């Protein structure tokens, strides 16, 4: 019985090597990679990463740096921060689910909170009647995560999230979400009064 297994195994391996030989020989030949073929990078747009975000210059968005600046880029799903001391940070973010929920323009940070409580807006509760009336900070499931920076527009925030699947996606009701570890890094850098732009 054991000798027939060895013979069968040997036969299968032998057949596989015979079938693979033409492919291996072609890969070693000089015409395997024709030089007349156009490079892939000129045929298709190159995407550097999943979110396609790249470093920005604050001068393209703000007249002066002042106390610092935050830029939330809805298209690339990224948040840029420039500090008054020249600090630059770039983070992946979640963005609003739809154009109707997206607000664009200039505002500023008006308040900051650690372990923020969450009160769904009336429109959120209309879309999902099962939402709680309020969630205290630190409660499991609180969508604001560990830190929140409230913007001058009512109900718009830059905040953390416990649901990491949301980052890099259109998944919010208007806010800009960050991984908790990123919002915790950004939180002490951003002052009340920091200018904000959503594009």
UniProtKB/TrEMBL annotation:
The keyword Glycosyltransferase applies. Pathway: Cell wall biogenesis; peptidoglycan biosynthesis. GO terms for cellular component: extracellular region. Its EC number is 2.-.-.-. Residues 68-199 form the L,D-TPase catalytic domain. The active site is at residues 159, 175. The keyword Glycosyltransferase applies. Gene3D superfamilies: L,D-transpeptidase catalytic domain-like. GO terms for molecular function: glycosyltransferase activity; peptidoglycan L,D-transpeptidase activity. SUPFAM superfamilies: L,D-transpeptidase catalytic domain-like. One of its GO terms (biological process) is peptidoglycan-protein cross-linking. Keywords: Cell shape, Cell wall biogenesis/degradation, Glycosyltransferase, Hydrolase, Peptidoglycan synthesis, Signal, Transferase. Residues 1-27 form the signal peptide. PANTHER family: L,D-TRANSPEPTIDASE, L,D-TRANSPEPTIDASE ERFK_SRFK-RELATED. Belongs to the YkuD family. This is Putative L,D-transpeptidase ErfK/SrfK. It comes from Ruegeria atlantica.
């Amino acid at each position: 019985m054991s000798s027939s297994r060895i013979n069968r195994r040997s036969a299968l391996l032998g057949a596989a090597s015979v079938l693979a030989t033409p492919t291996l020989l072609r890969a070693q030949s000089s015409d395997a990679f024709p030089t007349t073929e156009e490079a892939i990078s000129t045929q298709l747009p190159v995407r550097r990463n999943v979110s396609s975000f790249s470093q920005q210059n604050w001068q393209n968005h703000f007249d002066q740096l002042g106390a610092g600046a935050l830029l939330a880029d809805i298209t690339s799903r990224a948040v840029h921060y420039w500090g008054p001391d020249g600090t630059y940070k770039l983070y992946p973010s979640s963005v609003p689910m739809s154009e109707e929920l997206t607000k664009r323009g200039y505002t500023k940070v008006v308040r900051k909170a650690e372990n923020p409580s969450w009160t769904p807006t009336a429109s959120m509760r209309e879309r999902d009647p099962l939402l709680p009336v309020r969630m205290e900070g630190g409660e499991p499931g609180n969508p604001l995560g560990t830190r929140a920076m409230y913007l001058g527009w009512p109900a718009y925030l830059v905040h953390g999230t416990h649901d990491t699947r949301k980052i890099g996606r259109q998944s919010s009701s208007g806010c800009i979400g960050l991984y908790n570890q990123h919002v915790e890094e950004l939180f002490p850098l951003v002052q009340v009064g920091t200018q904000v732009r959503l594009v």
